[in-house]
Every structure is written in structure tokens, then in C-alpha cells.
Task: inverse folding
């Protein structure tokens, strides 16, 4: 590495470390973890110039948002775009104010360019693993949108490619870089709500765009859209603009409400609790309203059991989406412990602390009044002896609000973490592929449970799917075990 570049990186690293110790109110706080996790080597990255030159692969809705968030960081430059719809390639040149921006329908042309350091992969879910692995093999650093993979059995190949490459990779559930999530983690780790026993979240909607029926451009055709490339390894079918522009509604390309929405919450929960994931997952639901040809449910509830670890007690998590909620929509996320709860509201959070007194009390709707007077007297005598007055008072309920700084930019900071680690030659991002897969796999298991009508068993430590007790019992009795759903487990 030329010494001028090394000095530049050292300066940046020192500045970033300083920024990290200062205030969370800064627009971009870049954090270098002092040490990468033990399972990865800490290889040096060399970029041919001072700026990190990146390309966006998939310049649709989120591709535009991601690119803008990336560009809110210093010393990075958008140099190329790949997309499969001609209009979006054209729009990118004006949107990013660069008529000479390199654009292509073929992402491989981007990977072949030696002067591109990093790629943002913002395609539909069925392309994530293919482009990620190809990019890492081509020596690019990768920012890949959530969910990291389309199917559970694709996760390990991505992790292996990342480890082998020595490149930096960040998965894109950017909310964990928000001040609110950082604060929630601090509160949980400080024991502010006691031991967590239950987490709930719902994400209801009642509008067509919210239910993924995005606008289709009137010039959509096999000429303006590279349909064959879009299909990739999904089943072949004739051109269908609805499938291209509303791909979330089809399992061939998307991952339903679980992969699209639950994944953000589970990522946040793993970040806050230091959990590796659930070991039992069950979903149920229905396609209740949006019967427009989609093959994913619009109402779905999933229950996940998290086993006790050295980081937390066992807890249950219940996630729900209802895209047909014509009632009052009150979306909320609550982390509930035995001494309080944390409730997220927009970008802020409310901590409520509530501790039970030691004395259980008696009277009112209780069995006490059913005792004879003599027994009641004896009961009170024993109770008074066991519970002196100081054990009878509950601590007053305390509520604390955390207001995120107005300019808190989670998205920009998530990219900041990525770029800082790229510069440092570190693989220790806040949402590396091991973390990303530990969040993706359980939500993909939610789909497997829904479509196969079964409980899915998962080993969060080894990241492998397990056979459930039903199959073990069936084996013992000689009955054929139910096979895992082909759609959820078979390689595309
Ligand atoms: N992190 C978040 O908050 C967040 C929010 C929305 C979407 N996302 C994720 O971003 C991804 C994209 O979602 P979107 O809403 O932008 O979809 P979109 O349909 O608006 O855009 C996807 C784009 O990818 C392009 N594309 C498809 N296959 C390609 C290929 N092989 N090579 C190059 N380009 C290709 C399409 O032409 C399209 O323009 C999804 O994985 C989604 O889950 C994340």
C-alpha cells in the first residue's frame, strides 16, 4: 500500500475512533471494533485510491435509498450501476448527477472492473447469494440487503465465501445502527428491565403500496426489462411485468412478510440481547385480502422460542403482520422483562421499570375470604411474621423516554460502519454475514413452518436445521417421517 494511502487510512481510523467516543448526536458515527470476531482473519484491504469507489447492483427503490445513504459518508464515490430495467439505468445518471456513470444490465461487468472496491447488492432476494458470492470471489467488499439469503441452505456458502475472501461484508438491516437500538442494547445489558421473557412486535398495514403493489412503468416490456436475467435460477416463465416490479408477492423471488419485515425485528432483538437465535419456530396465517395472484400470506403470526444462554434467560417472541388491517393500526415493538419493558415508538423508546414487592399480598380476588375466621387470623399472624412492612412496598413505576437525536442517521451510520471497516481492512462489521444469517434463517424458517404446517427446529449455535421430536417419534414407531418442505429446503 502506498504510504500516503496508509497515512490517510490511519488518520481516518483515528478520527473515527474519536468520533465513536464523542456524541451520538453526530450525523455519522463510525465505529471500528477493536477486534474482529475470532472466527475471521483480519486481512488488510487495499483500495487503489483514497476514495472508496462503489457500484450499486439493483437500482430500484431501496437501491436509490441505499446509494444516497452510502454517499452521506465522506470519501466514497458511486462509479457504476447495474440494473435490469432500462429506465432505472437512465434515471440513475440524472439522480446521481453523473451523465458518464457506467451502467450495465450485467453485474458481472461491474465485478470485472479492478478499480471498483465495493458493491451494494440491492436486488430481489433470489439474487442475493449468487451476486454476493461472485462479488467476494472477484475481490469486492459487499454490502448486501436483508434478508441475506433467499433459502436457509444458501447461508453457509455465503459465510464460507466471505471468510475465504478476507473482504468486508455488511448485511443491510440498518436500524440496528440507530441511536434507539444502541440505547436499547445498553439498557438491556445494564439489566434495566431484568430478565427478558417475552418480545412482541407487529407491523400492520392497509394500503396497496404497503402491501407491495408498487407502480409498474407503462413502458415495461421484454425490450426494456432483462427478463431472462431477472429469472436467474427461478422457474422459467414468460415475461410478466407484475412479477418483475412486484416480486415480493412471489416466493420464487421474495421471502414474504417474514423475510421482508420480521427480519428487521429479529436483527434488532439479536443485537440488543446478544442472542444467537431461536430453537423452535412456528407460523400460521392466511391470504385474507390481497388475492391478486400472490402466493404469500398477507396475515401471518410467528412464534419463536429462544433458549436460555449465557447471555439471556429463555424468552418467547411473537411477530405479526396484517396487510388487511382495516381497524386501528397500532404498530409496536415491546421487549418485556420481569422488571420492566422497553417499547419502541418511531425512532424513540420508552423504558418502564416496574418491580414486584417481595410480599405477595392477600385479600380482594383471593382465597383468603374463603377461610374460616380462625384460619384467617392465623394466616395474618404468619404473614406479618414473614413479611415486615418494608417487603410490602413496590418501587414506584418509573418511565424514561429516550429521544433519538433529530439528525440520527441510522442508514448513513450503517454504511459508515461498513466503509470504516473496509478502510481498516477489518471484517468486524456490526452486521457481518454470520450475524446476518442468524437473523435470516429463523425468518426463512417462519415461511417453512407456514407452508409445511409444522414446527421448525433450529440450532442457533451451529446454524443448522434440526429434526423435531415428531420425526424422532415417527422413526421409533416405524411411521415415515414428514419430509421438510421442498420449497423451503431445496436449492433453487
Ligand atoms: N433495509 C431496508 O430497510 C430495505 C427496504 C426495502 C427493501 N430492502 C431490500 O432491498 C432489496 C431490493 O428491494 P427493492 O424494494 O429496492 O426492490 P425493487 O424491485 O424496487 O428493485 C430491485 C431492482 O433490482 C434489479 N435487479 C433484479 N435482478 C437483478 C440482477 N440480477 N442484476 C442487477 N439488477 C437486478 C431490478 O431491475 C430492480 O430495479 C430487497 O432485497 C429488499 O428486501 C431493504
Result:
Amino acid at each position: 500500500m502506498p504510504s500516503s494511502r496508509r497515512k490517510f487510512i490511519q488518520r481516518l481510523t483515528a478520527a473515527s475512533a474519536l468520533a465513536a467516543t464523542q456524541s451520538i448526536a453526530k450525523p455519522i458515527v463510525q465505529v471500528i471494533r477493536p477486534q474482529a470476531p475470532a472466527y475471521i482473519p483480519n486481512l488488510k484491504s487495499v483500495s487503489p485510491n483514497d476514495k472508496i469507489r462503489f457500484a450499486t447492483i439493483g437500482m430500484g427503490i431501496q437501491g436509490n435509498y441505499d446509494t444516497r445513504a452510502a454517499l452521506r459518508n465522506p470519501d466514497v464515490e458511486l462509479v457504476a450501476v447495474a440494473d435490469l430495467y432500462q429506465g432505472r439505468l437512465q434515471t440513475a445518471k440524472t439522480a446521481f448527477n453523473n451523465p458518464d456513470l457506467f451502467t450495465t444490465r450485467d453485474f458481472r461487468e461491474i465485478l470485472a472492473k479492478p478499480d471498483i472496491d465495493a458493491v451494494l447488492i440491492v436486488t430481489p432476494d433470489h439474487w442475493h447469494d449468487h451476486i454476493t458470492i461472485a462479488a467476494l470471489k472477484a475481490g469486492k467488499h459487499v454490502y448486501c440487503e436483508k434478508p441475506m439469503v433467499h433459502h436457509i441452505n444458501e447461508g453457509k456458502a455465503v459465510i464460507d465465501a466471505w471468510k475465504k475472501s478476507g473482504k468486508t461484508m455488511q448485511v443491510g438491516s440498518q436500524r440496528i445502527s440507530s441511536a434507539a437500538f444502541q440505547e436499547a442494547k445498553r439498557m438491556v445489558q445494564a439489566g434495566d428491565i431484568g430478565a427478558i421473557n417475552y418480545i412482541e412486535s407487529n407491523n400492520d398495514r392497509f394500503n396497496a403500496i404497503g402491501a407491495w403493489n408498487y407502480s409498474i412503468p407503462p413502458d415495461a416490456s421484454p425490450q426494456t426489462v432483462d427478463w431472462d436475467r431477472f429469472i436467474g435460477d427461478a422457474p422459467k416463465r414468460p415475461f410478466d411485468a407484475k412479477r418483475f416490479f412486484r416480486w415480493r408477492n412471489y416466493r420464487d423471488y421474495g421471502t414474504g412478510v417474514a423475510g421482508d419485515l420480521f427480519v428487521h425485528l429479529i436483527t434488532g432483538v439479536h443485537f440488543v440481547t446478544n442472542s444467537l437465535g431461536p430453537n423452535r419456530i412456528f407460523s400460521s396465517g392466511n391470504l385474507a385480502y390481497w388475492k391478486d395472484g400472490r402466493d404469500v400470506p398477507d396475515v401471518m403470526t410467528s412464534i419463536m422460542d429462544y433458549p436460555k444462554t449465557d447471555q439471556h434467560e429463555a424468552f418467547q417472541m411473537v411477530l405479526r403482520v396484517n396487510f388487511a388491517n382495516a381497524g386501528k393500526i397500532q404498530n409496536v415493538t415491546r421487549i418485556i422483562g420481569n422488571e420492566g419493558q422497553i417499547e419502541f415508538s418511531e425512532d424513540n423508546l420508552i423504558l418502564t421499570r416496574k418491580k414486584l414487592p417481595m410480599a405477595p399480598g392477600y385479600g380482594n380476588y383471593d382465597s383468603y375470604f374463603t377461610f374460616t375466621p380462625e384460619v384467617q387470623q392465623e394466616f395474618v399472624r404468619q404473614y406479618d411474621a414473614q413479611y415486615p412492612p418494608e417487603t410490602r412496598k413496590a418501587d414506584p413505576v418509573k418511565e424514561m423516554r429516550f429521544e433519538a437525536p433529530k439528525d440520527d442517521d441510522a442508514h448513513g451510520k450503517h454504511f459508515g460502519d461498513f466503509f470504516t471497516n473496509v478502510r481498516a481492512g477489518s471484517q468486524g462489521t456490526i452486521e457481518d454475514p454470520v450475524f446476518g444469517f442468524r437473523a435470516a434463517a429463523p425468518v426463512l424458517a417462519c415461511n417453512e413452518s407456514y407452508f409445511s404446517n409444522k414446527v421448525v427446529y433450529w440450532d442457533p449455535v451451529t446454524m443448522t436445521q434440526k429434526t423435531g421430536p415428531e420425526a424422532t417419534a415417527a422413526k421409533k414407531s416405524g411411521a415415515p417421517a414428514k419430509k421438510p418442505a421442498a420449497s423451503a429446503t431445496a436449492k433453487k
Summary: The longest strand covers residues 299-306. The longest helix spans residues 433-452.
